[in-house]
Amino acid sequence: MNNVKTIGILGGGQLGRMLSVAASRLGLKTHIYEPSANPPAAHVADAVTTASYEDVAALQAFAASVDVITYEFENIPTSALDVLEALRPIHPPRGALATSQDRLVEKAFLQGLGLQLAPFADVQNADELARAIAEIGTPAILKTRTMGYDGKGQARIMSPADADAALADMAGASSILEGFVNFSHEVSVIGARAADGAVSCFDPGENVHVNGILRTTTVPAKLTPSQRTDAVLIAARILNALDYVGVMGLELFVTPQGLIVNEIAPRVHNSGHWTQNGCAIDQFEQHIRAVAGWPLGDGSRHSDVMMENLIGDDMDKLPALAKTDAAIHLYGKSDVKAGRKMGHVNHIKKGA
Ligand code: AMP
Questions:
Q1: What is the pTM assigned to this prediction?
Q2: Which one, 47, 62, 155, 231, has least CB within 10 Å?
């Protein structure tokens, strides 16, 4: 098809694993770069480099062994990206990564596109927090600008009296205060953009989080036809503005006043795992196609699906689940830990 034969993937977690499987189906090889030993993706990839993101020689050798580089998580050190980018193309682009790595930069970018967001303010210290609370009101959420995931690095402020404790939770990290959005439910759009600029979005999914961690995604989501169109158009607008190549996750809050953008993730996304059994071409293949310079595939939804994450002790449900029609996806993690994503199942609604 073209000259891309080997895809380098930064990060060896379950997303890297499922990307490797998708690449393999297309006859492509993957090389995983991951600091920790025996990551989930190593079981299915063609090559693995176990080295830190500060190891310049290892980064250079990794880049030399692949045709193009992608990633499965956002918090890759800039210095490592500088080394890699000098040698091989990185998709999605650095600009998308930089935007999503810092909540303040992300909000400013999204606001610049004219999208609806929760009110927000930059907070560096107690004075700025007091001012932000006076302006935005309570309830509100204080979030670290960088390195947050799965609800980590967040503190709720129900009244101004909670301000000191919330600031202490940030442990000195730069933060933003966000007004609390009174949403009826949360949805996400998994969108893809190819190198030629073609955009294709999967049907929006409805997400339920427990303790900040995604529990289930259900398709179709509860949305009116105009909300569904709006959700997809918002995703497309963001993809085009970032000159994006690959798959992106977009989280939205549904409110009576319309859709409010929560955040973007420049990678395949947990809320897109339903596509593995709900579409002919899933999010992982779509990402690999885009990164490898192929045309996007047909991501239209052929079934109703409920994706359920298996987190920690949920693995105890496996024997019972194995007796049902659910499609089981396990990540090959040896240790079960509380809060750890071990796998997921897709419950497919027959005859939908
Ligand atoms: P985040 O890490 O920003 O995706 O936040 C994790 C979860 O916290 C979201 O999926 C929401 O359920 C909740 N949340 C985050 N920000 C807000 C907000 N401004 N208003 C209400 N709920 C929020």
A1: 0.96
A2: 47
